[in-house]
Amino acid sequence: MTRATRLEVPTAKGPGELVLERPSGTPRGVLLLGHGAGGAVDAPDLVAARDAALASGLLVARFTQPYRVAGRRAPAPAAQLDAAWLEAVGVVRGRRGLRHLPLVAGGRSSGARVACRTATAAGAVAVVALAFPVHPPGKPERSRLPELDGAGVPVLVVQGDRDPFGTPPDAPGRRVVVVPGADHALRRGEPVVADVVPGFLDAVLGT
Known about the structure:
Rossmann fold, alpha/beta, 8-stranded mixed beta sheet, about 210 residues
């Protein structure tokens, strides 16, 4: 077990929280993960991504948005989520030895959207998107694909084939791994996350 370090992230809308966990050796990169709209950073698919990244030699930081720290389930507006996320990036970058390490952004559902929208501003080299919500259930006309398309960096998407939020198509710079029988919670998808994340990290980090 790795020892976790908890850090407060001051934001304009109250404090967020980071949980940092280091690999056994010197980290070769950082994976910053965000939670779903009403969820937490201990969601099974996020934990699977964390474990895979730690085993691959990355430091993992999981960020809880201020509205969740305050005990609210309804998410803040997108601009507030993005601003808080970038504050978290700044806190991670301010830690000793982490400033110049390559950053991979990621998250599940709402957290994946935030990671895609802010990838360029955060200086991320890639995005890991778990259960990206392509559209609200039953409303494919309200597509969020522009957020995914606009990430500007390589993206790994892991998506259940029964996800009512839809499944994005493969595209240049984007790999979509579909988990048979999994819904938006990616239940039963943890082994797939654990299997595909290390290879993706190796590819984007050049090792």
